[in-house]
Amino acid sequence: MQKENNFSEWYNEVIRKADIIDDRYPIKGMPVYKPYGYKIVLGILRMLEGLLEEEEFEPIWFPILIPCEIFSKESKHIKGFEEEVFWVLEGDQKRLILRPTSETEMYYMYSLWIQSYQDLPIKYFMTNTVYRYETKATKPLIRGREILWNEAHTAHRTKEEAKKMIKKSIDIYLKLFWEICSIPHIWIIRPQWDKFAGADYTIAADTVLPDGRFLQIGTTHMLGQNFAKAFEIKFMDKHPYIKVDDCVYEAVSKDMNIKIRFKVQDSSIEYEIFDLEKSSIIRNGEYRLDNKDIFMVFDEIVVKELGKNFLENLDRYKYVWQTSFGVSMRFAAAVIAIHGDNKGLILPFSIAPIQIVIVPIYYENSQRDLVLEYSRKVYESLKTEYRVYLDDREDKTPGWKFNYWEFKGVPFRIEIGPRDIEKKRVVVAMRQRDSKAKKIVVELDNINSTIKQLVDDYDKYIKEEAKKYFEEKIIRVGSYKDLKRAISKLKVVKAPFCMEEGCARKLKEELHVEVRGTDLEPEEAEGRCVYCNKPAKYWVYIGKSY
RNA sequence: GGGGCCGUCGGCUAGUGGGAGGCUGCCGGGUUCGGGUCCCGGUGACCGGGGUUCGAAUCCCCGCGGCCCCA
Predict the structure, then answer these.
(1) Are A281 and A393 in the same domain?
(2) CB-strand contact A427/B, under 7 Å
(3) Which residues of A358-385 are buried (b: 16+ CB within 10 A; e: fewer)?
(4) pTM of the predicted model, to two decimals?
(5) Å separating the CA of residue A37 from the C1' of nucleotide B28
(6) Which bases of strand B have any atom within 7 Å of the beta carbon of a protein residue?
């Protein structure tokens, strides 16, 4: 089983043999996730939930079914998804769908919940399953019809806040992807023709699998006010008048360089309009209050004196700004595919279902009890801090167990035999890429502190390996010839591009590659488009993809 | 959306019109145990439905499922 030569075969074999999935369940694209595999996926999702909760997101649950009228509300959204939803019949009527993503069902309720700016921001997440009717070939964890994932949905008062949330989502995912799981990846702004249906723009994290294909492991969407308008998610905003003193209020327009100041009296309001540049009063006046709300009178004065444009937010009944972002179990596929080797899985320490396995070794029955007792002691001393498993099966030889647990990607193995008991030590073996485990003799007395150190070493080791791998996967090319050669060598490329959709389509037809998009800070290109030879606009990422 | 290939014990596979066999796993026993011990015995399958035929795992049709290629 060669990972480099035939990745697809390797992947299929590993996920079955390592007890990740059993795909014999007879529905296309719906395999069973076995405990070992499910624990990996859950471990990742729990880490993510923890990170979200640190940022004051709250968990929430919505139903799995969406009435089709609600689903259809945002026109671009439904266009993007209508062909790939599962219908649920009510009687013989197609009225319900299995959610393919939760924007519509959530935002239907958001419109009921949000009334005031004080209700904002809303930051909810949901770990759930979504359903997409895939007709093409499916692949466990990578493309299925049932997707386990975590989606977060926020609503904000201003565009700026929403933008900040986009940035925050990237920070959160960066922690999960790189710091915790050591998956190298790049953040890419998707081209307009490839954004999420209903979004203003989409930013996605892409990694590259060993077969040279991009795999999207996380996405974050600026939804703008598209869903807000479709679902009427409006709120009464804070008035723009700032109280500067007793009975004195001010409003400022930086665009117009103008400030207006109100002084509230018993039955009237005096106002002064300043030119901020010249710091002089342009004009002033007085208005009768007539028992009206002072802020309504402020509005009247502003409109009359300065026009509706003075404060763009004078209409205080506004649509929210929204973002949504998600990470699916696809990410677990990246962890398996990128770290694994020809001996099976290699798992990041923090998400490994079993972090340390203890293998007792003995030659004759007289040693057996002693070794097992010693092994149990070591097990007890480690189990509060780590997920440890004592493999005391007697029908398997130590050599068999070594290979078995290495296949499953257990980071550390502790070998305990008669020699170790004598010397009050253990042998710790660390999972290594494509070679036998690295063995380290550890004194029993400082086993806990040594393992702590070894965890750091292990983490650093898989990060270095992954980084090396990833750096070789992305190649900068300037010509079509080089692009073609790179693709044939199972790489993805960064190339100058004209940014025309038609050009991207032709590239897809000819080389079956996709234009994935630009860097977050798009890198301007000076030369010619790698395909059509017209002047290039930006360097973009191009490659085959899942 | 279009095309191709495929489906045999739990897994891998041989058999292409007339005996369903091997390896592995699993169960029992013995032997081994610091890198997948070895031996003996047992267990276990033709994806579902229809058709052709004296006779079908094998040929034909439909369905379900898998893999690959093209748009």
Answers:
(1) no
(2) yes
(3) bbbbbeeeeeeeebbebbeebbeebeee
(4) 0.93
(5) 32
(6) 1-2, 10-11, 27, 32-37, 64-71
* Cis, bond preceding A121 (omega within 30 deg of 0): yes
Nucleic strand B under 7 Å from the C-beta of A415: yes
* A127 and A68 inside one domain: yes
CA A232 to chain centre: 27
Q: How many domains does chain A have?
A: 4
**How long is the CA A403 to C1' B43 vector, in angstroms?**
27
Boundaries of domain holding A491: 474-545
| Distance in Å, residue A231 CA to nucleotide B11 C1' | 52
> For residues A71 and A104, is the Cβ–Cβ distance under 8 A?
yes
For residues A270 and A376, membership in a common domain is answered with: no
A83 CA, B8 C1': separation in Å?
37
State how far the Cα of A336 lies from the Cα of A142, in Å rounded to an integer: 11
ipTM: 0.93
Backbone angles phi, psi at A299, to 5 degrees: -60, -45
Q: Which nucleotide is nearest to A363 (CA to C1')?
A: B33
Same-domain status, A167 and A190: yes
Regarding whether A363 and A481 lie in a shared domain, the answer is no
Q: Is the CB of A80 under 7 A from strand B?
A: no
Contact A196/A153 with Cβ under 8 angstroms? no
Query: Smallest CA–C1' separation from A404: which nucleotide?
Result: B36
Say what angle helices A330-339 and A7-17 make with each other, to 10 degrees. 110
Last residue of a domain, one of A405, A426, A460: A460
Q: Tell me: the pLDDT tens digits for A330-351?
A: 999 999 999 999 999 999 999 9
The two structure tokens encoding residue A418:
């008669």
- The string of pLDDT tens digits covering residues A299-335 is 889 888 888 777 665 677 899 999 999 999 999 999 9
Report yes or no: A210 and A1 within 8 Å, Cβ to Cβ: no
Residue whose structure tokens are 């493999």 = A391
Nearest to A296 by CA among A318, A320, A264, A257: A264
**Angle at CA of residue A312, ends A222 and A160, nearest 5°:** 30
Which pLDDT score is estimated for A314?
A: 62
* Statement: residue A407 has pLDDT above 90: yes
